[in-house]
Design a protein that fits this description.
about 190 residues
Amino acid sequence: MAPTGREIGIDLGVVNLVATSDGELVEGPRFARNAPAALAKAQRDLKLKRKGSNRRRRAVERVAEHHRKVRDQRRDLAQKVSRRLVNDHDLIVIEDLQVASMVRRPKPCPRSDGTFEPNGAKAKSGLNRSIQDAGWGELARMLAYKAADAGRELRVVAPQFTSQRCSKCEHTDEASRRSQAVFRCTACG
């Protein structure tokens, strides 16, 4: 591919799948969150079937089909976003997110009386579901192989403080990130 002379940094997120250094936001459509009604009905139907029966096999296939549809939608979006980024930029910089570690369940906090302290597992499970629904790992893999195939450069950087560091003056401050969508550097404005 012909060089474009353009560089871009991307930040992966749950609400917006990709936020670019140019200010562009690619919204994450949350495919798994938008498909639960039909999937729940198929799973309820599966639960009523007798194990080993032909009707159960068909019900298992219906549940699997719902999961395949979500997977295919997520994969299609990742293909389109990664292709556009690789075609338009010579250098792409992405965070080295350890997705498997991010979605790990919190450790239990046992008390002395045999019960457990609240550890935020319920809230964490919702975040884990959103992270997995976003498909960060798949998008990163697609960017890597497409960039290599097109002769583009993909740099992976440590994710520490990337959402708090100003791209112009390199100043890092937690107060600069007022919300997920708003960043205003406290040093240079």
